[in-house]
Amino acid sequence: xxxxxxxxxxxLLTGVAGAFSLRKRMRGLMGRVGLEPGEGMFFPDCxxxxxxxxxxxxxxxxxxxxxxxxxxxxxxxxxxxxVCGDPGGRHTLETAAGSLSRWALAIGDALRLIE
Length: 115
Description:
115 residues, Jelly Rolls, 5-stranded mixed sheet, mainly beta, 3-stranded antiparallel sheet, 10% helix
């Protein structure tokens, strides 16, 4: 799947994996040593995450039901927990640490996931 900024059309990620099954949701990015540029993982209907057993920091984007950015977390280190502070947060996107600073996303930005 591809993640793009809905307003500008800028492609942010070209290799988004979906955690649609229970097995994929439970495994997430655990065991990975890194993410390639353009990679990420999408967790539908998920507004709280953890980085237990992960071997790398990640950047996190929380999205509301309309796919607007509801929360951002940069460089979330292993062995942490994070809950979206916005009660409207609904979905989670995880990507490589440093992505958010390159993209300059802001709360309220509209994103789009294309299959």
